């Protein structure tokens, strides 16, 4: 067994309908002025945001709750900068990311920006870790997918610079994560399926990644088994609260794998896709996966057959069968996306391939010549 290190510094609260009790117990985290960073819309409709504001306002030591609720599904640099300006103006002492992964990622960038004299743009464009203080971050996810509550990345898009990239560093790890599974009860079917696939992608990629180790692989196996059993249950019955609880748990433990192991080529390629479309992060991964799985099978057949078995399928004998399995899975889970459906034109593929950056070496497949172009071309039209 190879040597490894694994860190999990975030304090985790996991349960159902327990947010108010947790925040009262941790009221010291909310002293002074607090900034909530969120997308707002559905969270207002279901009453989640107004209730959270009220809870924090009534905590001992809290002076004021400030809200920035303009985060989009691909959070923009400009949105983070607006929230930073608001936070500085209101002299906030902590930041709450409330919503899906977009809101939590944005909250991390905002917490770094408020505490810094530099423009957050310099961290994003230059790939720098925040090197000064970062305000305390409290993550409260409302979807089961991204694992952002336990990861150290803040993924932002900048249309002006034609990039989607991450600000990363240990200081961006939330101080506390409150995973209240009741927030996911009202998530629509499409988002449930997309975010559920995101969990699976994190599990598969962190399992086959070069940096994987015995500890992370244990988490990957658990998450893959959970998704294989519970996402189909939610497609049949969106009101299955026990299945939603399981998906929240899988998403959470994959956040720790993201922080410690990272991902593979699909995530690197999706950032380029996300920079030029308004498609969701998960939708881009879904479009890329059958092709990536086929090529990955050529370098990792043993591990991918473990994945198929944990999903409840028989082992496959060749790469074409591996691709077919994931193509059928996309259809079964009602997410048969292709790159063309996401707004990518065939003429864009060459430029997209050139825009893919990041830690490509974490995927053994990255050594194969022109592999990124191949995956993009093969993912342009969905083949079943």
TrEMBL record:
Does this entry carry the keyword Ubl conjugation? no
Transmembrane intervals: none
Drop me one GO molecular function for this one. metal ion binding
InterPro entries per the UniProt record, alphabetical? ADH_Fe/GldA, ADH_Fe_C, Alcohol_dehydrogenase_Fe
Could you tell me which SUPFAM superfamilies the record lists for this protein?
Dehydroquinate synthase-like
Residue span, Fe-containing alcohol dehydrogenase-like C-terminal domain: 193-378
Supply the alphabetized keyword list.
Answer: Oxidoreductase
Domain called Alcohol dehydrogenase iron-type/glycerol dehydrogenase GldA: residue spans = 9-181
Instruction: Tell me what this protein is called.
Output: Iron-containing alcohol dehydrogenase
Q: What species does this protein belong to?
A: Schaedlerella arabinosiphila
């Amino acid at each position: 067994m190879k040597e490894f290190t694994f860190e999990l510094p975030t304090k985790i609260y996991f349960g159902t309908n327990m947010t108010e009790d947790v925040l009262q117990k941790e009221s010291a985290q909310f002293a002074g002025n607090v900034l909530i960073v969120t997308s707002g819309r559905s969270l207002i409709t279901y009453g989640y945001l107004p209730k959270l504001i009220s809870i924090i306002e009534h905590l001992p030591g809290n002076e004021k709750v400030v809200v920035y609720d303009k985060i989009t599904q691909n959070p923009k640099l400009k949105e983070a900068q607006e929230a930073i300006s608001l936070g500085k103006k209101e002299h906030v002492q902590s930041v709450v990311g409330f919503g899906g992964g977009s809101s939590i990622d944005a909250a991390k960038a905002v917490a770094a920006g408020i505490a810094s004299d530099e423009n957050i743009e310099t961290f994003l464009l230059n790939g720098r870790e925040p090197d000064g203080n970062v305000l305390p971050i409290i993550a409260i996810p409302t979807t089961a997918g991204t694992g952002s509550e336990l990861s150290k990345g803040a993924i932002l898009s900048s249309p002006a610079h034609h990039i989607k990239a991450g600000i990363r560093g240990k200081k961006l790890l939330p101080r506390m994560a409150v995973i209240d599974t009741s927030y996911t009860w009202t998530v629509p079917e499409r988002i449930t399926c997309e975010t559920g696939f995101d969990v699976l992608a994190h599990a598969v990629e962190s399992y086959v990644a070069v940096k994987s180790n015995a500890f992370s692989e244990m988490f990957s196996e658990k998450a893959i088994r959970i998704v294989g059993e519970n996402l189909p249950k939610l497609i049949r019955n969106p009101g299955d609260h026990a299945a939603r609880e399981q998906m929240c748990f899988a998403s959470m433990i994959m956040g720790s794998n993201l922080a410690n192991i990272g991902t593979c080529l699909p995530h690197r390629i999706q950032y380029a896709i996300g920079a030029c479309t308004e498609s969701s992060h998960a939708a881009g991964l879904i479009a890329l996966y059958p092709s990536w799985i086929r090529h990955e099978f050529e370098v990792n057949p043993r591990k991918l057959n473990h994945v198929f078995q944990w999903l409840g399928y028989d082992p496959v004998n060749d790469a074409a069968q591996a691709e077919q399995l994931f193509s059928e899975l996309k259809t079964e889970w009602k997410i048969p996306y292709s790159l063309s459906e996401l707004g990518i034109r065939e003429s864009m593929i060459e430029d997209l391939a050139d825009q893919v950056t990041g830690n490509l070496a974490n995927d053994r497949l990255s050594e194969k010549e022109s592999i990124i172009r191949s995956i993009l071309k093969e993912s342009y039209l969905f083949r079943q």
